[in-house]
Every structure is written in structure tokens, then in C-alpha cells.
């Protein structure tokens, strides 16, 4: 009886506490609602932070399992921390291959994750193991100097462009391709109307854990640009074709990496008067690095290039074939996700076939610095000093300096501002002739949804040369729509 009497107070206590526990449980749900509403009322608060979706349990299959990486990065050792949509890819030294006209599709992880990360990213069309993203752009605007003349004459214009991007979604290996075509027409200068086409593809084959093969092809057809330093003084607007490609591999059995690359570039001018400028160019490059840590890799690099023209002697009676070599010592540094740097400095030489043209030799350098102060902002700085083969009839070789700065900032996921400024100076020592180019651009994009966005763009171009008759500047303002799937 004593044991039964000792249990009575406990039973009585439980009966008393049961209503209080029920009341506290009900109030906890209401308190969460109040807390969520109070947080959302704060200025700048993210309304989705306390949403049911945000509080859903973590799935091991989507959060802690690393999605297969299909990005064609120059650095094969991608670490396991979550990667942003676009990552630092140190630019290769591409003397023979022109810079990409068609920018590649933004690197993505598995489609189900990419859609969750960017609510305005195009969904694309899945075709087996490939994702296809078609797009169309229509722009109208004003060009202050379509003919690149001095004094300038302005004109309204319109342009359109269609493109198809293809990207693989493989667990192993990776492929990326793009085909695009465009047309520009002027109201007051129909002779300046011109189409342009471009196609490029890149393939990465992961043969083994320590061996990767990289291949790239590119073909373009466009019109001669009077602002091109290689075409200063040319008045035609004929179409020309360009085809380039590269092949190489990266072998990294341990911390040591070996990366040989072969590049080819072919250019054909459509104007018969420029036939003596048609050429083929080759380059062989070898790069060897040693990874002291995932953040730090010093490397050495050596290359050899040769340019051969279809006509051994041009219209000015100059043998303008040339060849050259470069040696570099450099460093790749990525101390954290905010900073990334690749720089190299060395010595090089470029020699013309013509005996009376002096050789160019001296220091050469190239560097790229990327700063990401936040996930919404990226700033990129570049600089280069090099020698190059030239199509200018008087001079087979030239010195080249260039520098640039660009940025991208997302005010919101649907409002993106980008801009850039570049400067290039080319000096032809044979004639003591110099050409200077400035280019600036600012663009604002407003995304209505995944499929439709509006764009506004302002660009400025200026050319100054030793011959004042060839100087000009131009300002282009355009607005348009982009439709993508």
C-alpha cells in the first residue's frame, strides 16, 4: 500500500501537467508563424529563408553526393566544395586561334540542381544524354559611324541572331557545342549589311583518373572589319573564312602535370585583292606544372609557332612568312573562392622570312586576375605583352600590348549588369607605325522569366594610328529581346 500511495502524487502531477503541455505545443506553432512573419518584415530579409521548402529535410542524394562535373575546365582537379555556376578557367595562350565569337553555355551541374540554383536559367530540351538550348535575339539601335570613317556618318540599324547550344550531361567525359548565325542591316548604308556565322565544339575525354584528352574546333565566316589593326586601310567588306582547332592531353600521375597541345589556324580572305594575305598557322606548346597544394601550382611553358602564306611574296614584294618561340615561368594561385590568379613571364622571339626585317625579341608576359567579392559579383583583369605574326603587307611581324577589365554584377537574379574596357596597342617596327584601339561596353539584362529577357547595350570604339587619315571612333546604342528555351 505504501508503494501505491507513492505513485498517487506522480499520477496527480501528470494529470496537472498534461493540459499545460498541450497548450505549449499549440503555442509553439503559432510562435513559429509569428517569428517567420517578423523576420520577413525586416528590410532586405529573404522571404524564402523560413519557407516550408527551405525547412524541408536534406536529401543525401541531392546535397551530399557530388554531382558529376561536366565542365570543360582547364584545371582537371576540381575540388569537392560546391562550385558556382561559372568558375575560373585560366586562359590558354592562343596565338593561332582567334578568341571565341560564340561564348560557350554557362557551365552547369546535373539539370535537376541547375534549375534549383538559378530560377531564371533556361530549361533546355533534353535529347538523351544532351541538353539543347535554342535562342533568338532581335535588336535595333543607332550606330554613330557604321563605315568607320572620319568625319563620321550615322545610321539606324537592326540585327538578329539565332543560336543553338548543346551540352552533354554525361557522368564521364564532356562535350559542348554551339552554332549561331546573325545578320546586321543599316538604313542608310545598305552596302554595310553583312551576315556572320560561327560554330565551335569542345570535347573532353577522361581516359583515366590521371589522363585527360582535350579537343576543340571552331569555324567562322564574317566580314572584314575596318577597325581590325591587321586591315587598316582596307575599304572592302568582303566575307572571309576562318577555321581553327586544337588537340592535347593532360597527364597528371601525381602532383606533376604534363600538358602538350597542338593548334592550327587557317584564314581565307574573300576579296581577291587580299589573296596574298591568306595563311595557315601552327603552334606547338608544352606546359609542365607541379602542384605544391590545391591552391598553388608553379609551372614552366615553351612554345613554337610558324605562319605560312599561300603566296610566298605579297603584292609589295615582301616575303612575309614568319616563325617564333616563347619560354615562360608562371604561377597558378587560388587561395580561396574569392581570388584566382594565373600569371607567367618569359622571353620570346619572332623572326620574319625577309632578311631586311629585324627580328623581334624580348620579354613576354601574360596574366589574369579574378576577384569574386560575392556570389553575385565578379571582376576580371587581364594584361599581355607579346610578339605576333602580321598580315599587314609592309610588316610581317609586330609587337603587341593589351590590357582589359571586365565585371559582372547581379542586382537580382533577374537583373544583371555587365561591362568591360580593353586597350590594345600594336607597333610595326619596320615602318615605325602604331595602331591603338580602345573598346568599352556596358550591358543591362532584365529577365522576365526563363524564356524571355530584355537587353540594353552601349559600346564605344576608338582607333588611333600613326596615319591620322585612318583614325575614327564610333558609339553604338541598341536595345532588344532574347528568347530562349
Global shape: globular
Number of separate domains: 2
Assign the CATH class of the largest domain: Mainly Beta
CATH topology annotation of the largest domain:
Porin
Order of helices and strands, N to C? HHHEEEEEEEEEEEEEEEEEEE
Low-pLDDT ranges: 1-14, 16-116
Q: How far is the first residue's CA from the last residue's CA?
A: 81 Å
Please name the CATH architecture of the largest domain: Beta Barrel
What fraction of residues sit in β-strands?
over 45%
Query: How many helices?
Result: 3
Q: Major beta sheet, specifics? A: 18 strands, antiparallel, barrel
Key features of this structure:
single chain, 485 residues, mainly beta, Porin, 2 domains, 18-stranded antiparallel beta barrel, 3 helices, 52% strand, disordered N terminus
Describe what you observe in this structure.
- With 485 residues, the chain is mainly beta.
- The protein has 2 domains: 1-56; 69-484, Beta Barrel (Porin).
- Helices cover 10% and strands 52% of the residues.
- The protein is built from 3 helices and 19 strands.
- The chain has helices spanning 2-40, 60-63, 111-117; strands spanning 125-127, 130-143, 155-168, 174-186, 194-208, 211-223, 239-251, 256-269, 279-290, 296-309, 322-336, 339-352, 360-374, 377-389, 397-412, 415-428, 433-447, 452-465, 472-484.
- It has an 18-stranded antiparallel β-barrel.
- The longest helix is centred in the N-terminal third of the chain and has 39 residues, at 2-40.
- It is globular.
- 21% of the residues are buried.
Amino acid at each position: 500500500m505504501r508503494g501505491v500511495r507513492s505513485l498517487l502524487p506522480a499520477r496527480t502531477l501528470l494529470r496537472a501537467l498534461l493540459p499545460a503541455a498541450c497548450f505549449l505545443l499549440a503555442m509553439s506553432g503559432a510562435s513559429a508563424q509569428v517569428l517567420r512573419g517578423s523576420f520577413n518584415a525586416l528590410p532586405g530579409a529573404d522571404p524564402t529563408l523560413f519557407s516550408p521548402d527551405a525547412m524541408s529535410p536534406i536529401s543525401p542524394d541531392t546535397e551530399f553526393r557530388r554531382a558529376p562535373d561536366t565542365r570543360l575546365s582547364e584545371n582537371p582537379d576540381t575540388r569537392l566544395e560546391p562550385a558556382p555556376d561559372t568558375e575560373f578557367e585560366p586562359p590558354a595562350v592562343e596565338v593561332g586561334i582567334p578568341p571565341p565569337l560564340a561564348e560557350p553555355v554557362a557551365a552547369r551541374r546535373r539539370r535537376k540542381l541547375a534549375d534549383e540554383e538559378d530560377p531564371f536559367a533556361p530549361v533546355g530540351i533534353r535529347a538523351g544524354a544532351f541538353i539543347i538550348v535554342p535562342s533568338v535575339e532581335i535588336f535595333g539601335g543607332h550606330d554613330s559611324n557604321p563605315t568607320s570613317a572620319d568625319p563620321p556618318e550615322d545610321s539606324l540599324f537592326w540585327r538578329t541572331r539565332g543560336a543553338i547550344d548543346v551540352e552533354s550531361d554525361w557522368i564521364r567525359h564532356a562535350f559542348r557545342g554551339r552554332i549561331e548565325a546573325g545578320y546586321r542591316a543599316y538604313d542608310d548604308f545598305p552596302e554595310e549589311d553583312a551576315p556572320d556565322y560561327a560554330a565551335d565544339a569542345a570535347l573532353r575525354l577522361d581516359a583515366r583518373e590521371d589522363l585527360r584528352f582535350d579537343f576543340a574546333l571552331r569555324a567562322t565566316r564574317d566580314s572584314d572589319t575596318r577597325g581590325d589593326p591587321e586591315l587598316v586601310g582596307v575599304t572592302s567588306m568582303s566575307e572571309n573564312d576562318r577555321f581553327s582547332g586544337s588537340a592535347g592531353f593532360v597527364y597528371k600521375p601525381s602532383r606533376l602535370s604534363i600538358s602538350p597541345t597542338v593548334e592550327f589556324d587557317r584564314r581565307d580572305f574573300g576579296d581577291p585583292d587580299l589573296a596574298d594575305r591568306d595563311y595557315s598557322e601552327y603552334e606547338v606548346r608544352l606546359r609542365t606544372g607541379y602542384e605544391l597544394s590545391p591552391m598553388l601550382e608553379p609551372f614552366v611553358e615553351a612554345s613554337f609557332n610558324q605562319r605560312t602564306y599561300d603566296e610566298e611574296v605579297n603584292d609589295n614584294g615582301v616575303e612575309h612568312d614568319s616563325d617564333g618561340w616563347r619560354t615562360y615561368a608562371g604561377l597558378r594561385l587560388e587561395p580561396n573562392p574569392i581570388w584566382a590568379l594565373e600569371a607567367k613571364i618569359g622571353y620570346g622571339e619572332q623572326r620574319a622570312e625577309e632578311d631586311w626585317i629585324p627580328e623581334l625579341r624580348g620579354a613576354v608576359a601574360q596574366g589574369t586576375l579574378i576577384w569574386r567579392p560575392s556570389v553575385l559579383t565578379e571582376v576580371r583583369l587581364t594584361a599581355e605583352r607579346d610578339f605576333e605574326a602580321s598580315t599587314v603587307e609592309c610588316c610581317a611581324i609586330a609587337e603587341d600590348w593589351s590590357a582589359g577589365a571586365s565585371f559582372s554584377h547581379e542586382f537580382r537574379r533577374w537583373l544583371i549588369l555587365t561591362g568591360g574596357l580593353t586597350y590594345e596597342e600594336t607597333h610595326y617596327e619596320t615602318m615605325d607605325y602604331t595602331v591603338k584601339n580602345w573598346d568599352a561596353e556596358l550591358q543591362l539584362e532584365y529577365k522576365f522569366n526563363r524564356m524571355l529577357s530584355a537587353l540594353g547595350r552601349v559600346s564605344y570604339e576608338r582607333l588611333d594610328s600613326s596615319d591620322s587619315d585612318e583614325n575614327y571612333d564610333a558609339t553604338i546604342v541598341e536595345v532588344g529581346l532574347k528568347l530562349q528555351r
